[in-house]
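Transposase
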Amino acid sequence: MKRTRFTDEQIIGILGEHEAGAKCADLCRKHGMSEGTFYNWKAKFGGMTVSEAKRLKALEDENAKLKKLLAEQMLDLAAMKDLVSKKW
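Predicted structure tokens:
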């Protein structure tokens, strides 16, 4: 996964500047990002506080771990079923 140059706190700060009245183009030029990135951030983090963003990140990490565990268990189950279904 690609790492971002901006932390969640910085992103929320930039979005806060926009809500305070700064124009999108000016913010993008000031912080060195594209408008597409800005609108993606706005869709993901719009209206959030820093603590909510940290909680979201923690939940996403936990979800990724659980998905990995589930995939491993399903793979083990498939291998067991394959082994049991063979005729001796």
